[in-house]
Amino acid sequence: MINIQFAKRLQPLQSNVFADMDRAKALALAAGQQLIDLSLGSSDLPAEAHVIDAIGQSLGDPTTHGYLLFNGTQGFREAAANWYEQKFGIRVDPQTEVLPLIGSQEGTAHLPLALLNPGDFALLLDPGYPSHAGGVYLASGQIYPMPLRAENGFLPVFADIPAPVLAQSRMMVLSYPHNPTAAIAPLSFFQEAVAFCQQHNLALVHDFPYVDLVFARTGDSGLATGKEFSQYPIHNTQSLVPSILQADPGKSISIEFFTLSKSYNMGGFRIGYAIGNAQLINALRQVKAAIDFNQYRGILNGAIAALTGPQIGVKTAVATFQQRRDAFITALHCIGWNVPTPHATMYIWAKLPSTWSQNSIEFCTQLVKQTGIAASPGAGFGKSGEGYVRFALVHEPSLLETAVERMAKFLN
């Protein structure tokens, strides 16, 4: 057999937290376990009927069956720009400042190809979403992990980044509300990030999939109070968390990535978009043009319906995940696992008991093997994620409570 030589850039991609857990889940199923999968943040809620209708009507129109180039996406780009302006009060040019994507992950993974030369650094959150690192590796760049610690509200400390690293850095990637920690960031933090990146000539990338999955403040343990809420620019917007462009309204260095996977339960449709600095949008468009066309026009028609139609489905999704969060947290507290109540997202970021504090991968492997409960090990999101486990709230409260009952037996 010929010994095929593969590129060195593939070496860091050989391990992936979701692929590793997929294998562990398969083994548990083969052994007869009844699986309750809390490892993947894929919403179990359906897309709204008016969205499905828009896609369905497109199927019978043969003009939607061909390739879709950039100019053909004008309607979607206008819908995205209008949605953003209504939500955050900042005008967006749909021609130069919006780019459709096959999910926001496509954008965050491909943008490093436009920004990094071999050996350049990207500043990434640690822990952070795996595709952020994957895109840097594919661009033959280097990663400087910015540790996120509970005592800092899971926000990075920019002053800790070494000067030699900054001299070789070309981009910083943020993402709040944050996956996996579920932390949120105030506008003042984004203003600090913008000033820092302007000073060091860095492109500032904000991955914003959980823009809508933010819960009302109630003052319960682990939650911020109404006083902290005043830090958010909600006086003339519909959002409870800030956009990076509210800290950089001139779009001098910033680009933000959105998806319809979370707010509109359209994960399988693979539709997202970028908004921001026109030069960054154009550079990402050049990379995209070399790799793919756009997705089926019918999916964009469905996305337009989602962004411009009734938003009751978004409110229902938020209420659903808040109910699940409360049920899961209450159940954990009842078994003595005192996890803080998260502010946002569809995740619980739980510090592991001391017995497992340095081996989250083994914890998750044994948990699914012995109980059928699948979770994501914190170490899979970066070195600073060790000692934690992430649970995705993608089942009804009764099933989440059953999962905690099984975990209680495992922990004891």
Set down the secondary structure blueprint.
Blueprint: H1 17-30, E1 36-37, H2 49-59, H3 74-88, E2 98-101, H4 104-115, E3 121-126, H5 130-138, E4 142-147, H6 163-167, E5 169-174, H7 187-199, E6 203-207, H8 226-229, H9 244-247, E7 254-259, E8 272-276, H10 278-291, H11 297-308, H12 312-334, E9 347-351, H13 360-371, E10 373-374, E11 376-377, E12 388-392, H14 397-411
Parallel strand pairs: 1-10, 3-4, 3-5, 5-6, 6-7
Antiparallel strand pairs: 2-8, 7-8, 9-12, 11-12
Describe the fold and architecture.
With about 400 residues, this protein is an alpha/beta fold. The chain has 2 domains: about 10-45 and about 310-410, Aspartate Aminotransferase, domain 1 (Alpha-Beta Complex); about 65-310, 3-Layer(aba) Sandwich (Aspartate Aminotransferase, domain 2), CATH 3.40.640. Helices cover about 40% and strands about 15% of the residues. It has 14 helices and 12 strands. It has helices at about 15-30, 50-60, 75-90, 105-115, 130-140, 165, 185-200, 225-230, 245, 280-290, 295-310, 310-335, 360-370, 395-410; strands at about 35, 100, 120-125, 140-145, 170-175, 205, 255-260, 270-275, 345-350, 375, 375, 390. The strands form 3 sheets. Strands 2-8-7-6-5-3-4 form a 7-stranded mixed sheet, sandwiched between helices. Strands 9-12-11 form a 3-stranded antiparallel sheet. α1 packs parallel to α13 (about 360-370) and α3 (about 75-90) runs parallel beside α11 (about 295-310). The longest helix is centred in the C-terminal third of the chain and has 23 residues, at about 310-335. About 45% of the residues are buried. Mean pLDDT is about 90; it is low at about 220-235.
